[in-house]
Amino acid sequence: MIALGGSIGTGLFVASGSAISTAGPGGALVAYIGIGIMVYFLMTSLGEMATYIPVSGSFATYATRFVDPALGFALGWNYWFNWAITLAVDVSTTGIVMHFWLPHVPGWIFSAFFLVVIFIINALSVRSFGETEYWLSIIKVATVIVFLIVGFLTIFGIMGGAPIGFKNFTTGKAPFVGGIPAILSVFVVAGFSFQGTELIGITAGESATPEKSIPKAIKQVFWRILLFYILAIFVIAAILPYTSKDLLGSGATDVAISPFTLVFRRVGLASAASVINAVILTSVISAANSGMYASTRMLWAMSKQGIAPKAMGRTNGHGVPVPALLVTTVIGLFTFLTGIFGPRIYLFLVSASGLTGFIAWLGIAISHYRFRRAFVAQGHQLSELKYHAKLFPFGPVLAMVLGVLVIIGQDLNSVKHLDWQALGVSYMSVPLFIILYSYYKIRHKTKVIPLDKVDLTKIHQD
């Protein structure tokens, strides 16, 4: 439920409008399907490692043990930054969604309020986080199902008057707008949308029977998310033309409306649109809640591994890592930049978060590739593995190739026009990762671990 809650949120309910506006309906679908395939292989890779060595803060631990301690250090801090920025994006989105009802109230006021609420939920106890996430996720999934039903009824004319059909897939330059560069840029938005599926790795060490629960969770969560995203994007693209001035990223001044809300307005359900907007708000809060949890847990886990300050490992009487929670909340304050510089900063934050997520995914693919090779090199039999990743080595290799391709080409428009501000924000995760990796490698003089020296022993956590 944690993975489901962290994955279905801002990327679907708000940023999907930007994807359709940028690359057209066909380009958006190609990007989401491509990322879906990539994530499938990543989740099976993670499942193989997490069932063999279940541990909290798994990405940093796996990279440290299977590749290079410097890579583990850089990946851990990168992943914390990823979810901390995602928290800022989600909190910013609360202000955008509230604009539907109160267009004249500054969005930062709502963002501040919800940031405080999310902080309190996570500060009380792990149970308060879990209970909140459970109910918010139920609302979220039910909303997507209702939206899909209404959407298809609208497309075929059962609701909302005359059938819309699929004419919007050929409107203007549709279905593909902007060519390959546009699709590559949407890959980042899609990546941001699918981020959260790997949360299973963060919680692996807390599972009583990881060999059973992790494979089951990976299979169920991924297919649900893929089904929801692909069908939802399809419905939105069929009902709303990519030229709609209301889609986020289209360049219009009124960008504060979710594509879900626009669809309900389009079919004449004005009151339902208001209800859906309220549900979207709870969904975004859910995603932010998961982001806060993931980032604080990663910071706590890194402290235990000695790659973050010891203070980050301190917990209160309820087991909550309060120092890590406070530091993460400070990053969440980036949300107020959107109130100063406008909606363009919101899209920049989405891009920055998406890129850090791809770096984390690259780390999973590289770690798994090395894990499997070391496993065989040290004389182990594949039958010893309780869960087998699909199509090895094709899966992790494909994930690595796609990851590098998207990271390089994620903002080609800014490269072409030398928009240094856009380049700085969109690509800032790359130099940050390189600096972290180089710092640790130079200071501790680490090297890539030979396959026969890779530590494949089990980990027993306190």
Secondary structure layout plus pairing:
Elements: H1 2-7, H2 10-13, H3 16-52, H4 58-66, H5 69-98, H6 107-124, H7 126-155, H8 179-194, H9 199-202, H10 210-239, H11 259-266, H12 270-305, H13 322-332, H14 337-341, H15 343-377, H16 394-409, H17 412-417, H18 420-426, H19 429-444
Describe the structure.
With 462 residues, this protein is mainly alpha-helical. It has one domain: Amino acid/polyamine transporter I (Up-down Bundle), CATH 1.20.1740. It has 19 helices and no strands. Mean pLDDT is 82; it is low at 250-256.
Structural class: mainly alpha
CATH topology: Amino acid/polyamine transporter I
Chain-averaged pLDDT: 82
CATH architecture designation: Up-down Bundle
Which blocks of ≥5 consecutive residues have pLDDT under 50? 250-256
Distance linking N and C termini:
24 Å
Helical content, roughly? over 70%
The amount of beta strand, in percent, is under 5%
Whole-number total of structural domains:
1
GO cellular component, one term: membrane
Protein name: Lysine transport protein
Pfam families: AA_permease
Domain Amino acid permease/ SLC12A: 1-447
